[in-house]
Design a protein that fits this description.
With about 450 residues, the protein is of the alpha/beta class. The protein folds into two domains: about 60 residues; about 300 residues, Alkaline Phosphatase, subunit A (3-Layer(aba) Sandwich). It has 17 helices and eight strands. An eight-stranded mixed β-sheet has the order 4-3-5-1-6-7-2-8, with helices on both faces. The C terminus is likely disordered.
C-alpha cells in the first residue's frame, strides 16, 4: 500500500503542476474523491491502523491542495498569572512575637521573571526530490494488440494468412514462439498487460456489466507509474467516437450499462485503460486515451511521441471474422493489411529509429481459431508475438515462455519501474534483458 500512496501522490503532483484555473478546481474535487478511496483502503485492516500506513496517508493529505483559508478571530490578550498590590491596599506588616525579635528588614521577594521564548530550532532542510527512474536503451515502446487467427495461420510461413506479419515483419525482428494468452477474450489479456490483474469471471465474458469490471482507485496501471516518473503514454483506439459519431477520448459505457459495439467498430473491451478509476478520476484517461487518427501526428517528432503507445484497431481490422463490411477483406487478411500500413508509419518515425521497440501481440483469439485449434489438437492460446527494434538482431527467435504479464514486466523493466500485480511473479519472464545486453556491448 505504501507504493500505491507514493505513486498516487506523485501522480497528483505531476497532474496539478501542468494545469491552472478552472481545470485545476476540477482536479481538486476529483482528487479528493479519489484520495478518500486510498485513505480508506490504507487505514482499514484486520490489525487496526498501521503506523506506517497512517504516516503515508498523512504525507498524502499534505500534498492535497489547501482549502480556502478562513480568517480566525484575533487571540485574546493573555491573563496575568500573578497579582500585584494596588495603591489603595497597604503593604502587609510583620508582627513580632514575644519569643522572636523583630528582624531588621525583610527583603522583598524578587518577582519571578516571565519565561523567555525558547530559541527557534533551525528549519529542516527541504526534502530532496526522489530519484526518478531511468529508461534503458529503449525509450519508446509501441504495443499493437490484434485478434489471433491461430499460431499457424498467423506466424507459420507455410500456412500463414498474414504474409506481412509472418514474412516481412518477422524477418526484421524477433519471433516470440511461446507467447500465449491468458484467456480467449480480449479484456482479461488487456487488463493483465497494463496492470498485472488476473482474469476474472466478469472479464472473461468481456464484462457485460461495465461497472462490475471497474477497478478501485488504489489499483494502479502502467500509465499511473509513468506520470510520477516523468514518462508519457498514449492509447490509440481506432474509430473511438461519442454517441453522435464524432471522434472522442476515453469512450466507455455508462455505469450500470453494457456495451453493444457496432459491427466493425470500436469496442471498449479493446481499451483496458477505461476500466481503472486511477485513470478515470484524475482525467488521465480523458487526456491520453485518444482516437487512432492522432497517431500519425504524434509520430512526426520524437519529442512528441509518447514513451509508451498502446495501439488497437477496430473489430474488423483486429482480425475478428465476420466483422468487416461485406465485400472487403475479412479476418486475418484485414488485420495484416491494417498492420502493414500502421507499422510502416511507426518504423519510419524518428522515435522508433532512435530508440524504439515495436511489439506486435495478439490480445484476443478469433472464435474461429478456437475451433480450428481444437480440431488439430493444438493449444489455441499459444498465439506467438513479434518484436522489432533497431537494437535487436533481425530474424531471431526467442523460445522462452511469455504471456501478457510478460509484456507489462518487460515494459516496466525497460523504464526502470517495479512490475505490478501478477507481472511481479517469479515465473514471469521478461525480454528486457535482451536490450541490456545490447547496451553493454554497443557502449556509448
Amino acid at each position: 500500500m505504501k507504493g500505491v500512496l507514493t505513486a498516487y501522490t506523485g501522480k497528483l503532483i505531476a497532474t496539478a503542476a501542468s494545469i491552472t484555473g478552472k481545470k485545476f478546481g476540477l482536479l481538486v474535487a476529483s482528487s479528493l474523491i479519489a484520495t478518500t478511496g486510498i485513505v480508506s483502503a490504507t487505514l482499514t485492516s484486520s490489525n487496526g491502523v498501521d503506523p506506517l500506513a497512517a504516516a503515508a496517508v498523512a504525507a498524502l493529505m499534505e500534498e492535497q491542495p489547501a482549502a480556502v483559508p478562513v480568517s480566525a478571530p484575533a487571540p485574546a490578550a493573555p491573563e496575568e498569572s500573578f497579582s500585584s498590590p494596588t495603591a489603595s491596599e497597604p503593604a502587609p506588616t510583620v508582627e513580632a512575637t514575644p519569643s522572636e525579635p523583630l528582624p531588621e528588614s525583610v527583603p522583598a521577594a524578587a518577582p519571578e521573571s516571565l519565561p523567555s521564548s525558547a530559541p527557534e530550532a533551525p528549519a529542516p532542510p527541504p526534502p530532496s526530490e526522489p530519484e526518478l527512474p531511468e529508461a534503458g536503451p529503449i525509450k519508446h515502446v509501441f504495443l499493437i494488440s490484434l485478434a489471433s487467427p491461430g499460431y499457424a495461420a498467423a506466424l507459420d510461413p507455410a500456412t500463414s494468412q498474414m504474409p506481412y506479419l509472418s514474412g516481412t515483419l518477422r524477418q526484421q525482428g524477433v519471433l516470440l514462439s511461446n507467447y500465449s494468452l491468458l484467456d480467449a477474450a480480449a479484456l482479461p489479456n488487456g487488463l493483465a498487460a497494463i496492470s498485472g490483474q488476473a482474469p476474472s469471471e466478469a472479464s472473461k465474458s468481456n464484462c457485460l456489466d461495465y461497472e462490475k469490471c471497474l477497478f478501485p482507485v488504489e489499483t494502479l496501471t502502467l500509465a499511473d507509474q509513468f506520470g510520477p516518473a516523468r514518462f508519457t503514454w498514449h492509447a490509440y483506439l481506432e474509430d473511438m467516437a461519442d454517441p453522435d459519431g464524432k471522434p472522442a477520448n476515453c469512450v466507455h459505457p455508462e455505469p450500470d450499462a453494457s456495451e453493444a459495439p457496432a459491427p466493425s467498430g470500436y469496442s471498449a473491451t479493446a481499451n483496458p485503460f477505461v476500466y481503472f478509476h486511477s485513470l478515470l478520476d484524475l482525467g488521465d484517461c480523458a487526456t491520453n486515451d485518444v482516437p487512432l487518427t492522432e497517431l500519425p501526428k504524434d509520430l512526426k517528432k520524437a519529442d512528441k511521441t509518447a514513451n509508451f503507445s498502446y495501439i488497437a484497431p477496430n473489430q474488423c481490422n483486429a482480425g475478428f471474422r465476420g466483422q468487416c463490411p461485406e465485400g472487403t477483406a475479412d479476418g486475418p487478411a484485414a488485420a495484416d493489411a491494417w498492420l502493414e500500413k500502421t507499422t510502416k508509419e511507426i518504423l519510419a518515425s524518428p522515435a522508433y529509429k532512435k530508440d524504439g521497440l515495436l511489439i506486435v501481440s495478439f490480445g484476443a483469439l478469433d472464435p474461429a481459431a478456437q475451433e480450428a485449434a481444437a480440431a488439430e489438437g493444438a493449444d489455441p492460446l499459444k498465439v506467438g508475438a513479434v518484436l522489432a527494434s533497431p537494437l535487436l538482431t533481425a530474424n531471431g527467435t526467442d523460445a522462452a515462455v511469455y504471456n501478457p504479464y510478460s509484456l507489462l514486466r518487460s515494459t516496466d523493466e525497460l523504464f526502470g519501474l517495479e512490475p505490478l500485480g501478477e507481472a511481479d511473479g517469479k515465473k514471469v519472464h521478461s525480454f528486457a534483458t535482451a536490450f541490456v545486453a545490447t547496451e553493454t556491448t554497443a557502449g556509448d
